[in-house]
Amino acid sequence: MLGVGLRTGEVRRLCWKDVRDGVVHIPAASAKSRRDQSVPMPSRLSEMLAAYRPRDAQPGDTVIPPGAFPNGLTFDRDLAAAGIAKWDASDRVADRHALRHTYVSWIAAGGAHPKTTMALARHSSMELSARYTDLALLDVRGAVDRLPMPGGTLRKRPATEGRTWDRTGAAKGA
Q: Most buried of 24, 91, 113, 157 (most Cβ within 10 A)?
């Protein structure tokens, strides 16, 4: 869920035939939009899934075996066992859906264009993707520092006191 931003139901129904060539294919029957969709996987996730796939797995077998997908209670117990608080100081919740929020936030924090973030999240609008983005993860200072400012030093401007300009920008008066 964290590596491709899939929704809970999409992961639960994901079959081995849907994971190929570094891409996760979401059939229309599983997708929220009811359209066939696909999402590229990080190379590392693709390698991990290939190593995880049982030798006898059939194309129609689910990637996560029946009964192995954590329900809400199991997820909460896993958080506790890992020492992760369910709620943080900013009142954000750690749940399965938070993994999707994190995915979208990481894409945005990586510098992706908002339209790219929207496409990868398979959202209907950039506004929705923006709501999924944790602004605390964005490099605001870095974005400003990367502005293509001209080099050199600034010259002091000549005094303009007492001068006026016409509509063309030409100086007039003393």
A: 24
For residue 115, the number of C-alpha atoms closer than 13 Å in the C-beta half-sphere is 0
What is the CB neighbour count within 10 angstroms for residue 53?
13
Q: Which two tokens stand for residue 138?
A: 């964005």
End-to-end CA distance of the chain: 70
Angle (CA) 68-17-56 rounded to 5° is: 65
With respect to residue 86, please indicate whether it lies within any of the assigned structural domains.
yes
Q: Are 78 and 103 within one domain?
A: yes
CB 72 within 8 A of CB 80: no
Please report whether residue 173 resides in a domain. Answer: no
pLDDT digits (tens, 9 = 90+) for 115-163: 999 999 999 988 888 888 887 778 888 888 888 878 766 666 666 666 6
CB 63 within 8 A of CB 24: no
pTM metric for this prediction: 0.74
Angle, in degrees to the nearest 10, between helices 114-121 and 96-109: 150
* Average pLDDT, rounded, for the chain: 87
Task: Tell me which DSSP letter residue 35 carries.
Answer: S
Show the domain range for 7.
1-69
Number of domains in the chain: 2
